[in-house]
Design brief:
The chain contains ten helices and 29 strands. With 421 residues, it is an alpha/beta fold. This is Glucose-1-phosphate adenylyltransferase.
Length: 421
């Protein structure tokens, strides 16, 4: 087993790409970038990539931000402020700040790194992991780094094993018998199968490992190419596949599981339906994502709040929660909660009921509201007697109802409803 002194993560940094809006999450990203969206009762989406890096032994990280980054920056300042420079630890937030040209923001994922080459140089590292900041998973990056070194690859690409025809939504790796990548195909209509496994394909996770000296030179060459879109998936990886050695790394081999027989867990919560389902799945008896694992914790900013409180005990007015996650500061006053996830400081009132509801922080649910299959944005004030989830046509007049039947509720939607009534 690797010791802290010889772990490759000790000589590596994580460069987290967290600038994309995440427009498929609709109004949930009106005021915050996708990696800053809440998840799991306490955390934000970006906490998973950062926690994986920290738990793997990486103590040097950078986060590139661009779109509506204030919420993300504030979260990182509050929740990830324990790095100490005197211990050679760093977490730098790198907003698009026209460092190269006064008219130039980050124009692609590779360009976000190129514009900060001097900062990465200052870390004095050997390897760099490029990470997407918007996925939910647990992964030991040391395993991927070790494969990168052992195979003498120019780039190692983290890959999911997915049913072949589901891979049409991903960048897909065509590999040989040694998992060397022979083609990188963006959202192919007929994805190539894994050799010896005709029913599955390898899909990119948006995770890449490079030796820094190699990537640095490649980025500078790419920056001078007027035909390039300066993107890792669109330009950098295809160039290495054609001119160097690109290796696929299978997530199954580095996924952190809470028990040996558990399936590998990775979710893109980029749609309202996927976001709702991944949160509601946590209420299962034995969820696939284990947030209770003290050996691989998800670090985050933990707001100071009192314990959750349940009050009233009458037949039609009982504060109760069954198969649900209820965070600190919540007050469940005479409300029936089932299969729901409530973030910090959610307050519910008498005679209300919540079924399969994801309520973000500081939501208040007034008396006699009945909510089913909902996502409620932060700070929303649910009015007395509101019924959602029982009449899709009525819901669609005021709220966003997804193809999967989930209703997204925000305060501006409720304000427009109140004005119309």
């Amino acid at each position: 087993m690797s010791t802290p002194m010889n772990r490759l993560t000790a000589r590596s940094m994580a460069f987290v790409l967290a600038g994309g809006r995440g427009s498929r999450l609709k109004e949930l990203t009106d005021t915050r970038v996708k990696p800053a969206v809440y998840f799991g009762g306490k955390a934000r989406i970006i906490d998973f990539a950062l926690s994986n890096a920290l738990n793997s032994g990486i103590r040097k990280m950078s986060i590139a931000t661009q779109y509506k980054a204030h919420s993300l920056i504030r979260h990182c300042q509050r929740g990830w402020n324990f790095f100490r420079a005197e211990r050679n630890e760093y977490l730098d937030i790198l907003p698009a700040s026209q460092r190269v040209n006064e008219n130039k923001w980050y124009v692609g994922t590779a360009d976000a790194v190129t514009q900060n080459i001097d900062i990465v140089d200052s870390y004095d590292i050997d390897y760099v992991l490029i990470l997407a900041g918007d996925h939910i998973y647990k992964m030991d990056y040391e395993v991927m780094l070790r494969q990168h070194v052992d195979t003498e690859a120019d780039v190692t690409v983290g890959c999911l094993t997915v049913p072949r025809m589901e891979a049409t939504a991903f960048g897909v790796m065509h590999v040989d018998e040694t998992d060397r990548i022979t083609q990188f195909l963006e959202k192919p209509a007929d994805p190539p199968a894994i050799p010896g496994d005709p029913d599955h394909a390898l899909a990119s996770m948006g995770i890449y490992v490079f030796k820094w000296t190699f990537l640095r030179e490649l980025l500078l060459r790419d920056a001078e190419d007027p035909k390039s879109t300066h993107d890792f998936g669109g330009d950098i990886i295809p160039y290495i596949v054609e001119n160097g050695k690109a290796q696929a790394h299978r997530f199954d081999s580095s996924c952190v599981r809470h028990k040996p027989e558990a399936p590998s867990y990775w979710r893109d919560v980029g749609t309202v339906d996927a976001f709702w389902k991944a949160n509601i799945d946590l209420t299962d008896f034995d969820p696939e994502l284990d947030l209770w694992d003290r050996n691989w914790p998800i670090w985050t900013y933990s707001e100071t709040a009192p314990p959750a409180k349940f009050i009233h005990d009458q037949d039609d007015r009982r504060g109760s929660a069954v198969s649900s996650l209820v965070s600190g500061g919540c007050v469940i006053s005479g409300t029936e909660i089932r299969n729901s996830l409530l973030f910090t400081q959610v307050h519910t009132n008498s005679y209300a009921s919540l079924q399969k509801v994801v309520a973000l922080p500081y939501v208040n649910v007034a008396r006699s509201a009945r909510l089913t299959n909902c996502v409620i944005d932060r700070g929303v004030q649910i009015p007395e007697g509101l019924v959602v989830g029982e009449d899709p046509e009525e819901d669609a007049k005021w709220f966003r109802v997804t193809d999967g039947g989930v209703t997204l509720i925000t305060q501006p939607m409720l304000d427009r409803r109140a004005e119309a009534k």
